Amino acid sequence: MIALGSDHGGFALKQEIIKYLEDNKLEYKDYGCYDENSCDYPQYAKAVANAIVSGECDKGILVCGTGIGISIAANKVKGIRAAVCTDCFTAEATRQHNNANVLALGGRVVGAGLALKIVDTFLNTEFSNDERHIRRISQIED
Q: Would you name the residues annotated as active-site residues?
């Protein structure tokens, strides 16, 4: 299951992502926000991050205006590796090399078409299980 969260700046793009997930019959849970009224992204980042570390969800997608603030907030939760991606190459690399479990997007940075390609790449790329990447992730977690 995929955990979703956004603030008001990412709400519209999150709606596009929900449509993509539904069209591809992928299960998700939306942790908010639920409209475009001004709100604070840390609470949604924390909700998504906690859903992942608890095992309720496997991966997460967070969206704010730039993707930066919401990723910083998510990365405060132990066990979360959130990456801001603005292209498919970084989405693929962060899954293969960092085993990122949260994709962060900027609703004011990437258009819906590109964002959905990034989501697709992130969700369909496996971690490489390469020893050097495992070692580096362990160093990050320590």
A: 64, 97
